[in-house]
Design brief:
Elements (H helix, E strand, L loop, with lengths): L19 H21 L5 H12 L5 H8 L3 H13 L3 E3 L11 E3 L1 H22 L4 H19 L1
Antiparallel strand pairs: 1-2
């Protein structure tokens, strides 16, 4: 007997391509590929764009907070931030009056690059959700949140 036959799948599926995890990974890979292509034209990577978006919504974040918000390690966030700083897209204090966290902010050039990149990324998301009704999109977002909470808890 095969090992696969001894373990029941979590839901009816003919093969691996019908599993939720596979479909999520496939959608994520398609999204990442489209974003990579679009952001390359803005001279940004997906992690750099994510940092710019997060800093626009939460100016003054520390590296640790930014890493958590963009789903990368602190070390990876440092590499991304170094590239953004070298490109003149962010400012980061060399020291702080209190604590160890060094607040990060977008520069005017960072705001401009983000604005251009955001249009390209939002167009991709629009293509991705175009065939989903507003009601189904709301339910999908809630379902994705529920799945995340089930795994985080």
């Amino acid at each position: 007997m095969k090992d696969r036959e001894s373990v029941s799948p979590p839901h009816p599926a003919r093969d691996v391509t019908e599993h939720v995890g596979y479909r999520l990974k496939r959608a994520a890979a398609a999204l990442r590929g489209a974003m990579d292509k679009a952001l390359r034209e803005q001279d940004l990577t997906v992690p750099q764009y994510s940092c710019l978006e997060f800093l626009d919504e939460h100016p003054g974040l520390s590296n640790a907070d930014l890493a958590r918000g963009t789903f990368v390690t602190r070390q990876s966030a440092n590499v991304v931030l170094r590239g953004l700083k070298d490109a003149g897209l962010i400012t980061r204090a060399d020291s702080t009056d209190h604590g160890r966290a060094l607040p990060i902010h977008l520069t005017e050039a960072g705001q401009q690059r983000l604005h251009a990149a955001r249009g390209a990324v939002y167009a991709i998301e629009e293509r991705m959700i175009r065939s989903i009704s507003a009601r189904r999109l709301t339910a999908l977002l809630a379902d994705l949140d529920s799945m995340t909470e089930a795994l985080d808890g």
